[in-house]
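Give me structure tokens for this 387-residue protein.
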Amino acid sequence: MCPIKAACPSTKPARRALPAALLAGCTAALLLQPAPTATAAPLAPAAERRDFPGGGTTVSLPLTTGHRLGPRATRPFELVGVGWDGPAAAMAGATVRVRTRDAATGRWSDWHTLEADAEDGPDHAPHAATAPLWTGRSDGVAVEVAPGPAGPPAGLRLDLVDPGTGTGTDAAAATRTLPAVPADDSQAPRPAIVTRAGWGADESLREPGFEYTGPVREVFVHHTATATDYACSDAPRVIRSIHQYHVKTSGWRDIGYNFLVDRCGTVYEGRAGGVDQPVHGAHTLGFNTDSAGVAAIGTYVGDTPPQPLLDGLAALAAWKLGLTGQAADGHTTLTSASDASRYPKGTVVDFAAISGHRDAFNSECPGAALYARLPALRAAAAKLQVQ
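Here you go.
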């Protein structure tokens, strides 16, 4: 191993870039530490900052070999991730870990591992990035990248996301909501759904127009792999951060998930195009067609998913599948569109109508604790469809 360290404090977070020619076993560590000064220092020379109309900001810092900056404060951020140029396979076997500094207490977190596999995303992703990590309000970060056998990819960079206040306000979420609608003879009730305006989506970020798939016959359940102990009032901030990261770091046309559900059971509209429409998402590589992706906000590997969250997932899945007459406790077949999925391209796969992300991709998502609840979730959703 040949350690490469870069101490990099920055007024806004960074993106990572390591030359591809370096040793595969090399570890690159980027440290952004707050200085004792009250004001944020200027951006590092190679940093790139993007400001968005809704007040959000993304700062990218290259993770360059030997790149060093004296300690300086970072502007506040709330989500961090690492991206690179080229395919996701360029980081096969790599390990990416981050620590962050709490802006309120000054305490540093433990190390968190970022998943480097391209488990979420469109079937033909333009860029590659790790899964993002929601950190809460932070002003310092440390990153450690241990490349895989292929060595560090070009354009390795650290992204720090500040979601800003959004184009709406978090308080507006309560009024910018599609109300619950009783069931008719053919479908389950529609749960109340917070619209994109309700969580403050910056519509200037996404590509114009919408993409649609065939009738939705499958719901894939995910978790966002972000903090689980968030206040539910912070859910709109989490969603805005993920939105910025998916669009500006990963290069997707919009947020990848069709819907999100927070720990209090509130359902949020994800990708734009109409909640009752078959919007083509970017959530389950290889199986984005004829399916919808719903993300439980949090990490449910060991943490028990709260009952309100499970109720929200069941209600949403029952309604969405009911729109096409698909039984929530039934099965459907989908055809793989990517060799990078769990199944070679062209493979016809039989799925439970409500499945976990891991059923379609070699991933732990949606976490062992949530995955174990899927049988009960299917039963609850099916019961809603026959009431």
